Amino acid sequence: MSTPLKPQIAVPRSNDRVVNGVKYNRSGSGRSKFEMLAWLYMRLSGILLLVLVFGHLIANLIVPEGGVHAIDFGFVGGKWANPFWQVWDLALLWLAMLHGANGMRTIIDDYAERDGARFWLKLALFLATAFVILLGTLVIFTFEPCPTGADAELLASFCPAP
């Protein structure tokens, strides 16, 4: 009498695993390296985002006299006149958008069952992310609170008279 075949089961924590007779190698593939880097990015950007968000909230809501009621066109114009705040808000925008897009990419990979749906959802996600990052970057660096030739009554209080 012959002995029945035993299923092939890899040693726990080994780089090889067998599922339904198919052997998968988890080491050395480019996809696993990308996923590891994406996982690492989520952790590091999350920590940095905490600092950036709380700094943003303190600078905009606690420091100015009047709290949230002090935020207006002149407040933003005065803040973005300083390159430090431009870089701060740019870093906040880029990190938050890429952090959120990476999280959504993971959700799409987990829940979109068909390859076609997964492709189109990811394409829409990447296009929306690129659009928001591009538009936000342009707004931060091209914002002009004191346009030349504008009516003096419409200009912010810190703008020089034309």
TrEMBL record:
Entry's localization field: Membrane
GO molecular function, one term: metal ion binding
Keywords: Heme, Iron, Membrane, Metal-binding, Transmembrane, Transmembrane helix
GO cellular component annotations of the record: membrane
Gene3D superfamilies: Fumarate reductase/succinate dehydrogenase, transmembrane subunit
Subcellular location, principal: membrane
Transmembrane segments: 40-63, 83-102, 123-143
Protein name: Succinate dehydrogenase
InterPro entries per UniProt: SQR/QFR_C/D (IPR034804), SuccDH_FuR_B_TM-su (IPR000701)
